[in-house]
Every structure is written in C-alpha cells, then in structure tokens.
Description:
Blueprint: E1 2-4, E2 6-10, E3 13-17, E4 26-34, E5 37-45, E6 49-57, E7 70-74, E8 78-83, E9 96-102, E10 111-118, E11 121-126, E12 130-135, E13 143-152, E14 155-164
Antiparallel strand pairs: 1-4, 2-3, 3-14, 4-13, 5-10, 5-14, 6-7, 6-13, 7-8, 8-9, 10-11, 11-12
Amino acid sequence: MIVKGNWKIADGALVGTERPKDKQAAVIRHQAETGNAVYEFKFMLSEKTQFFEFGFDEADTQVTNDKSLFSLRITPTAWFLVKHPKENATEVSDQQVIAKQKKTFAADRWYGARITTWGPYVTAKIDNRSTITGSAQTFATTKPTIEFRGRGGPVEIDDIQVWTQR
C-alpha cells in the first residue's frame, strides 16, 4: 500500500520518489506479520537521496507501551539501526540510534541488504561485508507491517525476500 510519495515499477524494480508538496518521505507498506525473520533486498540510491529506510510499522491493533520497532536507515555517508519512538513521541529526534557506522553509499549502484531479527537482536549486513548489530528488549515483538521509506531523490528497491521462523 502506497502511503506517501510516488511509487512505480521501472525496469523490474520498485522506484519511490518523495513528492515535494508532501514534505515527508515517500512511504510504501506491505502487511506481513513477521517475528524472527530474515529480510533481504537490493537497493540503489540516487544523487538526490537524503535517506532510505527499511523498517516496520505497527498495526493499529498492536500499539502497546512496552514494545517498539526499528528501522535500518541508510544515508549517502552512513547507516544506522534506529529504534522507533513510542506512539506519543512528537519528533523524529525522539528516535534512538542503536548502532551507527560510517560508510559511503555511491549513487546509481546496487547494494544488497540482509537484516536478521531474533528476539531482541538485529544484525544488518550490506553486500555481505559490512555488519552492524544492535538489540533492545522491545524489539522482541511481532512486526505486522514491512515498510520502505525514501527521502529526497528516487530510491530503487529490487529482489525483496522474507524468510520467517516456522
């Protein structure tokens, strides 16, 4: 489901672009309940991309005070694991950076991302080389909605795969 921005399929990849009038990142969601899982996809930033995120959003029926989700945020110069603020938080600055690593992400180049969640633990890899890890007890929750976000110029996403624990 497209929430914000413009999303289309081009050359077999999902392409998301922020609409300037929205003044918010382009957002697309897919309802897929996961817990312990592996999420894998390819992504490509453009020259105008400010950030790209893969993360989760809570279903309205699952909002609780003791659980929170996270995102993998990628900018042209670094990548982060970011803990989402509670529902009553008002600013993006309320997000807590769990892990951060400086890394240059060139525009117009495909990268492979693999995120593994197991209880409160998260491991993210880029091109099976760079790794960041983090944990928070609040991550050990069902993740009802997968979400991609892009700010600035177009972001391309391809080969999305999800494996869950049975």
